[in-house]
């Protein structure tokens, strides 16, 4: 199990509008074996989980260590995780979250929580954030060495930099 990848997938899940089963299937790009298992019930569970998980990212962005830890702990009580050692790749023992009988929602929630909990323990509770580019409200996981990430994507970063540049140009021309 790649905990950083699972943590990043949790941010992707929060940034996905789950309007219908097709949107969920789109979110699962590259995980084709899950597509046929997606149901309306998964949508209901995942939409609720999105509402429950977002405050954890917001607490991290606000440097609220206690809020991150308590939020994740409460979610892990509400959504118990059952990790299992997998040996499907010879010589590469690793953890998976759910068994074959778990729903798509159970799998995604479990991956998100185990990934985020491990990331918070390894890198600290302030590695989750909310994009600084208005009006974007997407979230992200900051794995940068100096914990300097402020935007959810290169697109939002570029948009903010261009806006700042134009504001400086306008201020300079106004002062001349």
From TrEMBL:
Entry's PANTHER family? BLL6575 PROTEIN
This protein is called what?
Answer: Putative stress-induced transcription regulator
Tell me which domain of life the UniProt entry assigns to the organism this sequence originates from: Bacteria
Q: Which organism is it from?
A: Nocardioides psychrotolerans
Q: Which residues form the Zinc finger CGNR domain?
A: 127-169
